[in-house]
Specification:
This protein is mostly helical. The chain has ten helices and no strands.
Length: 180
């Protein structure tokens, strides 16, 4: 963790590749000083492509409790790009924490339908994680919470959000054979 202070200026670098590699390095180190979290989060506003969130997400998911409050603020930012990237970061939390579920539920109230869809995708990952990530087996309490979240979203005013929620809800009712 002694190297982290030296990496912070590199994260702020104008060289995007160098900055993203520095974020990856901090994530690989594990829990880091609280000062690293806001610096990483501010880089999320770099653009709407997935690269910042794909890099920052795994790093932030490994940094421990220092992430919760700054990420909560990013999810409520007035900047659309920041909110969008912050929701994409949540994909990497995979429902392993109460914080992740609480924030994803709150994102279902976002005024932007695309962000509501992204929140549903992030919640769905708790049931269907990417193969390259480690995830805990989904317990019945998590399944119940997801069912409630998807049910609520299936009543959304936006047709695309409703449709997505209904598909995910059907997946909970009829889970894959290996997850029953």
């Amino acid at each position: 963790a002694q190297i982290v202070p030296e990496l912070l200026p590199l994260i702020r670098s104008d060289d995007r590749t160098q900055a993203l590699r520095s974020v990856e390095t901090i994530g690989a180190i594990g829990p880091a000083p609280n000062a690293a979290v806001p610096v990483i989060l501010e880089r999320l506003a770099w653009g709407e492509d997935d690269l910042p969130a794909k890099t920052a997400g795994p790093a932030l998911a490994r940094l421990g409790s220092a992430v919760a409050e700054p990420l909560r603020k990013a999810l409520r930012s007035t900047d659309y790009v920041m909110r969008s990237q912050a929701v994409k970061v949540m994909f990497h939390f995979q429902g392993r924490s109460q914080f992740a579920f609480d924030e994803l539920e709150a994102m279902l109230e976002d005024k932007d339908a695309t962000l509501r869809q992204q929140a549903l995708h992030a919640a769905k990952i708790a049931l269907d994680p990417p193969s390259d990530d480690v995830v805990l087996r989904i317990d019945p309490g998590v399944r119940t919470r997801l069912r409630s979240l998807f049910k609520r979203a299936s009543e959304d005013e936006d047709e695309s959000v409703r449709s997505l929620a209904e598909v995910y809800l059907r997946g909970l009712v009829h889970p894959p054979a290996g997850d029953r």
